Amino acid sequence: MRNDYELYKAIEDIRQTISKDVDSKVNEEIEKRSFKVKTIFWACTTVLTIFGIGTWFALPQIAADTAKKIVKEETSLQVLGELKQKEIEIHAAHTNAMDYLSKLSNEYEEFSANLVIKLIDDNKFSNKLINEFKNNSDFIAITKGEVGEPGIDGLPGKNGMNGKNGEPGPPLFDGRFVYGSVSSDGQKVTGEDYTVSRMGGGIYKVTINKPFGSIPTIFVSAESAKNLRDGAIISIRYNSRTRRTFEVAISYGENNKLIDSNWQFLVIGK
Q1: What is the second-level CATH architecture of the domain 176-269?
Q2: Which keywords are on file for this protein (predicted)?
Q3: CA distances (Å), 214 to each of 32, 88, 105, 192, 264, in order?
Q4: Can you say how many angstroms the Cα of residue 65 is from the centroid of all Cα atoms in its chain?
Q5: What's the number of CA atoms in the CB half-sphere (13 Å) around residue 261?
Q6: Which member of 127, 145, 176, 239 lies 3.0 to 4.6 Å from 162 by CB, making a disulfide possible if both were Cys?
Q7: Residue pair 223/261 in contact by the 8 Å Cβ criterion
Q8: Among residues 238, 233, 213, 215, which one has the least CA distance to residue 223?
Q9: Letter string b/e over residues 75-106, b meaning 16 or more CB atoms within 10 A of that residue's CB
């Protein structure tokens, strides 16, 4: 736009100088033609001398005015010609400026139209990428970062790299448990805080040293007896479970014959 500013400034400068040109040219020409004016003046003086004193006072002024009028008319014609030429130049400059501005406007409209088309194409391309990758597990992993480590004891997990916190850990267990392994003859093999006894073939009783606050949950499992096929069945005897004790029975075969066998248990409660 700097070229446009300089162009219009030049046009304005030309317009401001136009009003000064006529008077300047007239004075210049009068100065150049002063000799002619003097010649006419002396000619008029000679005529006045010949024709009389009365005319002597009038003719010099008439001659001077006539000479000045002639010079001014000639100079005005010359200046008008130059002004006409400048008018043509100004008109051409104005036309060029309008053409340039029109070209800029057309280029801007073309640029805007192309920009709109590009934005639409970019939007379509973005939507296409989103649709292609939104269900891609690898892409999701990259954009979301690594999954955080699982939480422990109900606390939030450690942050993953650019990922979210790990899922909260399981609730903190506020109860207690007792576990143990028992041999087929009713002897404690592993575990603490309990005693065990064999009440008869395939029947055992466990006594917890410290009673639970309520009847606990009990899990039991049995091993098949020696020289027998797999398939021993262990169960908690009916009405034997209390806050401190429980009894189990181990059987085998189609007739559910009670047998001695190794077994294990886990008691969970508060």
Answers
A1: Sandwich (2.60)
A2: Membrane, Transmembrane, Transmembrane helix
A3: 135, 114, 89, 20, 22
A4: 84
A5: 27
A6: 145
A7: yes
A8: 233
A9: beeebeeebeeeeeebeeeeeeeeeeeeeeee
Asked whether the beta carbons of 146 and 162 are under 8 A apart, the reply is yes
C-alpha span between 1 and 13 (Å, rounded): 19
Q: Give the model confidence (pLDDT) of 116-132 as tens digits.
A: 787 787 777 777 766 76
Angle between helices 34-51 and 2-32 (to 10 degrees): 30
- Taking the C-alpha atoms of residue 216 and residue 253, their distance in angstroms, rounded to an integer, is 30
Cα–Cα distance, 180 to 97 (Å, whole number): 102
Domain coordinates in residue numbering, the chain: 2-130, 176-269
Single-letter amino acid, residue 251: S
Tokens of 147: 């999954």
Structure confidence at residue 34 (pLDDT): 59
Residue 235 CA to residue 257 CA, distance in Å, equals: 13
pLDDT tens digit string along 218-249?
999 988 766 566 678 899 999 999 999 999 99
Measure CA of the first residue to CA of the last residue in the chain; give whole Å.
Answer: 87
Residue 185 tokens read as 């003859």
Tell the burial category of 216 from Cβ atoms under 10 Å away from its Cβ (0-12, 13-18, 19+): buried
Residue ranges with strand state E in the chain: 176-182, 188-191, 194-200, 203-208, 217-222, 233-236, 245-252, 257-258, 263-269
> Minimal CA–CA distance to 227: which of 248, 253, 249?
253
Q: Are 191 and 207 in contact (CB under 8 A)?
A: no
